[in-house]
Every structure is written in C-alpha cells, then in structure tokens.
Design brief:
With 344 residues, the protein is an alpha/beta fold. It contains 13 helices and 13 strands. The strands form four sheets. Strands 5-4-3-6-7 form a five-stranded parallel β-sheet. Strands 10-8-12-13 form a four-stranded parallel β-sheet, sandwiched between helices. Strands 1-2 form a two-stranded antiparallel ribbon. The protein starts with 5 loop residues before the first helix and ends in a 7-residue tail after the last helix. The N terminus is likely disordered.
Amino acid sequence: MMKAKYIGIRNWMLTGIAAVLFLTGCGSATPANNASAPNNTPSQETAKAGDGNSTNPVTVQIDGRTVTFTEVPKRAVSLNQHVTEVMLALGLEDKMAGTAYLDDSILPEYQDAYAKVPVLSAKYPSKEVLLAAEPDFVYAGWKSAFTEKAVGTIDGLEKLGIKPYLHQSSNMTGPEPEDVFADISNIGRIFRVEEKADELIEKIKKEMKEITDRIGEQKEPLRVFVYDNGEDQPFTAANNYMTTLIRLAGGKNVFDDIPKGWTTTSWEEVVARKADVIVIVDYGDKTVEQKRNFLLSKKELAELPAIQNKRLIVLPLSAAAEGVRAPLALQTLAEGFYPEAFKQ
C-alpha cells in the first residue's frame, strides 16, 4: 500500500511508458473499506489562509506517516468519486491533471468543474496511465487504489516523487463526521485553501443540523438493515460511515455490533434482528428494482417488519461515502425513517 525524484527521471521514463501504453489497457479494481485509524495533526507552519500560493511547508499525518508538502501540488489526480468531489468543492479543478472511478454521476453543482479534468479511466487507471499524466499528488478514497493491481503502492509512488494521500475517514472503522472534516481540512491545508475548506465544513455541519433538528431525538430508534448485495448470503454495513448516518437520522443499524466496516451475514440472522426499515445501496450490476424485487419476494423475509410494511429506502453509494454528500444522505434517510417530520 504504499527517493529518486520523479521529475528527475520523468523524461527517460516517458519513453518506456509510451511503449507500454501502446500495448497495455487501463487496469481496474474494486473499492474496499479497510480499517485504518486516522491521525490528523495541524501543519507545523500555518499557511496563509486561502491564498492557494503560500510557500510555508504543511505537514500532515496520513495513515501513520508524516508527510510534508513544501509547495502546493500542481498536477493532482483523484481516484474515487467522493474524493474527486472534495477537490471540486474546494475549487481545485485547475490543479488536477486527471481523475478516475465514478460510482454514479458527479453532483450537478460540480459538473462544469469536472468537465475540465481529464478522465484517465472508468475505474482505476493502470500505473502506466497514471504516470503518463505526470502527477505530483494522488488522492485516493480507498486503499484498493494503492496496490500493484491499480496505480501502485504508496511506497512506490513516493519513490517517484509523487505524494499519495489516502482519505483517512474512508479507511477506518466507525468514522464520524468530524473524521471526514479532518480529511477536508487536510486537503485545504495541502492546497493552501484553508478558508474554502472551513467554509465547506461549516456549510455541511449547518445543513446536517437542520435535518437532525427536524427529526429531534428518538427514544426508540428504528431498526435498520442495510442491503448492499448478495443472494445466498447478504453483504451488509456493519460499523461504517453509513451506520453513523443512520444513527444521526434516528435509526440503528441492526449489525452495528460487528467491529468492522462491512460484513457478510446470513438471512436467518437478518430475520432474527427484526429490522423496521431496509436501506438498499444503489450501485453495481444489479439495479435498485432488481434488489427491491429480490428482497420483497424472498420467502425467508416474509415476516420481517420492513418487508411486511414495504419500508425500503434507496441510498446511492456515492451519498454514503465519506465526502461532501452527508447532508444529502442524511436527508434521504431521515425522510424515509420519519416522513411526518418533513411534511409541509
């Protein structure tokens, strides 16, 4: 997952890369939620807030490593939709040399900015395609990006003079909104746009509070089962960011006692936990309608309160990731859980 300078060796590498590109297509991988506790610390020297050009060094802790940025990255590449949207929300599209791996569509307010950024691959680009973009900073949402099957390890990229950043809140168990805000703050410091990062964080907090104020405190939170995929055995959210959003929306994930992000369980266990609501995660090869029909027709679930009352809510995977969409996800969940609180 992981010093010869990349700039110094770039010219002779590009010749080899061009030959490899002629023969090699783009690689891909699947996002995975792996546990890894973040350790975000303030910069050693505070950059001039919001100017985007400060030369003061900024030091952050990334996945247990201390990384110092002596200058603002000029050719960033983002991998995974939620971190791409963080970059765009901070107005950093002009500092992006490429992007890859969408789960669905970029938020409408960022579409124009996104159109300015070269798309390197539908999923993860190969290492050769990444290097051809000449990046000085690679920002990934999931650990699966930093493997030899994808763009290369963190250590390997660092040896080429490229600074990797792994979104910490997406790679830990039980992240809270403050963990997401720490990532946004880090990116703001690295690109010397701290004021924009602070404004974005405050905007997200305000919108989330407006939603939670409407539903109020629930003495008996609704029991919620998250259906990601799987027919013989269901794959579900255990103790991850979606579970946090469910809690904030006045629910309780029935599998939140399992100490990891995602888990495979049994249908018998799903029935035993008596969910009042099912949240269907919208992504992948199966459509929402296919997933919904499967659950409603599965005989083992016939006595489940959520099935009897047809209380199934759809949540896009992009909304459940640790990015800028928390208010959208929270609104979707809260309206589905407590529709009466949102009636005009």
